[in-house]
Inverse folding.
């Protein structure tokens, strides 16, 4: 695959413009010049042109998901967490019990949200980064008949693991339970085929793999799930049934929409489709990851996860064991060179993260590796190998 991202523009010079910094995070991320430019117009939220943008947005997302008859798509104002809460508060009945598969911060946040909502849950906690597997989910479902729903984070970005969604979906369906998916950071790049996975509802966000900007997320769910959610929500503003009903009746959002963000997202969707859609997006992000990992390993860095579990979204690296390494100084040096990286979010080992998603290709990742090499040299660190203690802690956790 070429390192160049190709798409059309009225002004080809726009494509040569580099951002002040590349955001190597799991979102917000680096966007295309056309996406940013789309925010330069004001929109009336009631105007037919804006309603047309909303309709285009919903239709395109359903096309990416792969089903436009049984499922529907509803955008919701706010961050991704707003949308996860809207899904849980609207789709899950009050007398239900949810099995939450936890292997990172975002699974833990789901448990906390269910507590706020007063929904019963059972937790399968796999620690910082071990994957929940189909057989253990099946055992829990077999022994606990009260469980009605299973929820899993598709890509847990606190470690970068891509959870085995297919086997989890298979055992959930086999036991007659309903599957909910937090695909915040994976939808649009990693295939999430409705016909294969048969999930009840899925949630994602504008500022992830479609490469839009922050401001809203969206829920793709069975139409029956939206219908049955009537009167269930704990919240006026996060009521998915009402958002769905009003949007399908009038074409409008219930409350003031993030108009500029919607316009930017529609432009990002058009670029996404022109570039080849989900397969092309996955190919580019995978090439980004592979280029990054190979280059960082050549400097002595070690990944937290084995190759099988590395997502094309974000990669966690163990902190170098050298006594002179200081992440804050390393971060500042990388930022001076044009790259904003991400601190770690693990409890067992010191680490940091580098995102692979955004409007750039492997050529930029080569520059990231070069910047890391220069930053290590500036810190007088000859090799980035982690400490023996970090390696031991990582391997022990993986075995557990």
């Amino acid at each position: 695959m070429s390192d160049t991202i190709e798409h059309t523009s009225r002004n080809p010079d726009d494509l040569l413009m580099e951002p002040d910094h590349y955001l190597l995070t799991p979102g917000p991320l680096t966007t295309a010049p056309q996406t940013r430019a789309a925010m330069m117009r004001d929109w009336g939220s009631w105007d037919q042109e804006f309603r047309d943008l909303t309709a285009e947005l919903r239709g395109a997302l359903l096309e990416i998901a792969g089903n436009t008859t049984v499922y529907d798509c509803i955008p919701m104002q706010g961050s991704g967490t707003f949308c996860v809460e809207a899904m849980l508060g609207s789709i899950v009945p009050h007398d239900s019990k949810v099995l939450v598969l936890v292997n990172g911060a975002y699974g833990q946040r789901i448990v906390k949200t269910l507590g706020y909502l007063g929904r019963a849950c059972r937790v399968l906690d796999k620690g910082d980064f071990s994957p929940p597997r189909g057989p253990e989910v099946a055992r829990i479902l077999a022994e606990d008949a009260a469980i009605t729903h299973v929820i899993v984070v598709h890509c847990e970005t606190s470690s970068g693991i891509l959870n085995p969604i297919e086997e989890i979906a298979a055992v959930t369906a086999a036991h007659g339970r309903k599957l909910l998916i937090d695909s915040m950071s994976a939808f649009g790049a990693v295939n999430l085929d409705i016909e294969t996975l048969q999930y009840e509802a899925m949630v994602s966000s504008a500022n992830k793999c479609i490469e839009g900007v922050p401001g809203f997320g969206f829920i793709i769910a069975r139409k029956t799930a939206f219908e049955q959610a009537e009167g269930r929500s704990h919240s006026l503003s996060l009521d998915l049934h009402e958002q769905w009903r009003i949007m399908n009746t009038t074409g409008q959002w219930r409350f003031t929409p993030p108009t500029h963000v919607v316009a930017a997202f529609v432009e990002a969707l058009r670029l996404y489709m022109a570039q080849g859609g989900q397969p092309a997006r996955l190919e580019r992000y995978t090439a980004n990851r592979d280029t990054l990992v190979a280059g960082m390993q050549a400097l002595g860095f070690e990944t937290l996860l084995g190759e099988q579990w590395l997502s094309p979204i974000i990669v966690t690296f163990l902190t170098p064991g050298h006594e002179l390494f200081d992440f804050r100084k390393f971060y500042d040096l990388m930022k001076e060179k044009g790259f904003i990286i991400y601190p770690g979010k693990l409890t067992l080992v010191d680490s940091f993260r580098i995102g692979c998603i955004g409007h750039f290709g492997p050529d930029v990742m080569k520059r990231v590796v070069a910047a890391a090499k220069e930053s290590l040299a500036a810190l007088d660190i000859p090799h980035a190998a982690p400490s023996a203690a970090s390696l031991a802690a990582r391997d022990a956790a993986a075995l557990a």
Q: What stands out?
A: The radius of gyration is 21 Å. Residues 277-298 form the longest helix (22 residues).
